[in-house]
Task: structure prediction
Amino acid sequence: MSNNLNARRLNMSAFAQQGVPLVELTPLQNMERLAQEIHGPAPDLVINWRASGELRERSGVEDDVWVRLEAKTSLPLTCQRCMGTVATALEVDQWYRFVADEDIAMAEDDASEEDLLVMTPQFDLLAVVEDELLMALPLVPMHETCPVSPVFSAGEAELAQPEEAKPHPFAALAQLKKPK
Result:
């Protein structure tokens, strides 16, 4: 970690005042929810991310704390067409403005282009990095062109079996019409 800052317990006001970016290489295994999305084990994967804070003046009140988060990685996901591994690049570049409490965040959220986060004494910035990467995942990961043609076999076994001759629905009625 750079500058002896802990991304899991960060004082965002002090971080923004300091103005020194936090640059990290975090192992994927430290992001449990994101690690569950990958295809197979990948113990050597890392997330390259950077956070920089700044104070922006606001007339008549305290300065606003802003943080820019940038993250980049490539994850092996499961192609939903061929079920093989597809390398998927993920990028995040997002600004956040910190507010005092949840009520302010809810009141200002619709009018704000930036994302609003609630200021806490020890903010978990690494959780925000993981959240953003999870939201950046494609809904349906797929190769542009699969290296192996997918085999579509659902229901083919049933179609290949010869259909048994089914009795005519009115055959039982015909038996009733016959004289005894």
